[in-house]
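Pasting as-is:
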Amino acid sequence: MSTPFESEILAANAKYASTYTHSGLECPPKKRAVLITCMDCRLDPKSALGFELGEVTTIRNAGASGLDAARSVLLTTHVLGAQEILLIKHTRCGLLGVPEEAVRGMMKKNLGVEESKEASTREEVEHLRKHPLWLSKIKVTGWIQDTDTGVLKKIVE
């Protein structure tokens, strides 16, 4: 027996599938790019950055962690030919209602994530660039998207 949410998803999928026009789409990203962004449900990288299905590989995880995404990024660069990586963090953590100090303390203690978005963006870009399997021709940059305005700002060139 389906839950109401599952029924909603199945109805939406049936509508999507009835107009689906991407049969035969190849796996390598057409724009040869990878986005690493947060799993926060307020973020919509496709709409915010203007790409279409098949143009970029998108890796989403808690905090837009370059450390967590490294394996997938390496596969996408080595196997699928991606040439550019954008690590995109955002303002206002989605753990709304949880005191910010508690989130920061827990993230730092459990995951080693810095309190500052800019600092952690810089650290994670450097982590990717210094990875022993990193291809020197791959460009990686760091960004922060403002959750309230949608504006994207480059932090690491």
